[in-house]
Known about the structure:
Layout: E1 5-16, H1 55-67, E2 71-72, E3 75-76, E4 78-82, E5 92-96, E6 102-103, E7 106-111, E8 114-127, E9 131-134, E10 140-143, E11 150-156, H2 163-180, E12 192-202, E13 212-217, H3 220-239, E14 247-252, E15 257-263, E16 273-274, E17 281-282, H4 285-293, H5 299-308, H6 314-320, H7 324-335, H8 340-357, H9 369-380, H10 386-399, H11 403-409, H12 418-431, H13 433-440, H14 446-457, H15 464-480
Parallel strand pairs: 13-14
Antiparallel strand pairs: 1-11, 1-12, 2-6, 3-17, 4-5, 4-16, 6-8, 7-8, 8-11, 9-10, 12-13, 14-15
Helix pairs in contact: 2-3, 5-6, 7-8, 7-9, 9-10, 12-14, 12-15, 14-15
Bound molecules: zinc ion.
Amino acid sequence: MKGDYEAVIGLEIHVQMSTRTKMFCSCPVEFGAPPNQNTCPVCTGMPGVLPVINARAVEYAVKAALALGAKVNLKSVMARKNYFYPDLPKGYQISQYELPLAEGGQVVIETENGEKVIRLVRLHIEEDAGKLIHDEKGESLVDLNRAGTPLMEIVTMPDLSSPQEASAFMREVRKIMRYLGISEGDMEKGHLRCDANVSVRRRGEAQLGTKTEVKNMNSFRFVEKALEYEIRRQVQILEEGGEVVQETRLFDPSTGTTRSMRSKEEAHDYRYFPDPDLIPLVLDKNWVDRIEENLPELPRAKKERYIKELNLPPYDAGVLTETKEIAEFFEKVVAEGVSPKKASNWVMVEVMRIIKEKELNIRHLALSPSSLAKLIRMVEEGKLTGNMAKDVLDVCASTGKDPEEVAQEKGYEVLSDEGELESVVRKIVDEHPDEVQKYLSGKDKIIGWFVGQVMRELKGKADPRKAGELVRRILNEKKGS
Ligand SMILES: [Zn+2]
């Protein structure tokens, strides 16, 4: 974007809640089922049926609202949002309008310039529509498996000012939802979708420019690409003396561009009114309070605690709190008495390497936190070298075996007899007078070479740190002579 323009972005994020059944009927929510299998008269919009609200979905949405610091309305109203589309059999979507489930709240994101608070307008519950499939014959087919899936819509204030901030916001929301265990946040299954209102204005100008709404962004990368394109498009129109038209635009991932879909609709076009089939949603204050008391520690709070109480560098704290499962694994290793920084190094480097290689969720790793703790202690006590430990770890991670047993099977044993180690070091030093001379003339790095020779002689069974100390001591003895 040209330097003298700035973007103003507000997001509407739809989060699919991980309930077992749909929002207003007992059909299962299931991805990949044969078309129209998970349907019933309610979610196919047959005349005369009555919706029954899913209590678990309400609980999840309340959880999310509380975690985001929003104010939960003890009384909210389900409303009909009327529009005609082939994937919407009732001719309306049940949503919330005038009295949403929650209002306010905020999400803190990390940007290049530090932390930024993104204020929220509201959070409400609604149902998803079905899906249209356009086949090669030019026919359009309707699959209503998705119709009635419970969604949460989170609407932000226009506080975001770049495509990167928008994707950071989405990532943070996904992280929080996963910590709460209320959405799987699987982008490929459309669990997190985003529409954006975006406008541009000259920097320093108070008045907002005309905005467009960009729809159909279902990955972090698409959000960035779509917004980058849209911002560039709007700036170019203004630069050429034109005017941005207020409209809804669709992002096309195959071209990375947005195209006009329809002129922007206003709220009144949807003829919202309270759904006469559903009484107002009235929540018990004690029930809401109990949910609040039982909220888990959220990623930001956890990260701060790791920095303040465990003295971890912010980078480590960020990586370890990326998912709840990794954080829990790390905390269990620390609970076994391993120092936080040591535990952090092993989890961040080795454990995360293994789960990446195996494409595993850490929950399915055969290695237990207590086995890792044991392994780390074996290294600390000098029973294993770092390289041996990594080998042992790989075996433990795929077999779940005890590290001590694996070390024994592999014949890994660190020479504990210092006398023997010293005699090997002396032998190596005596055999290489040229290298000794190099050390004496100030080439300190040659110590590493000596340690390598010692390790080779002992087939890796020595503690390299200890060997290094011995090499230095014995070489220094030569200085005087
Ligand atoms: Zn149904």
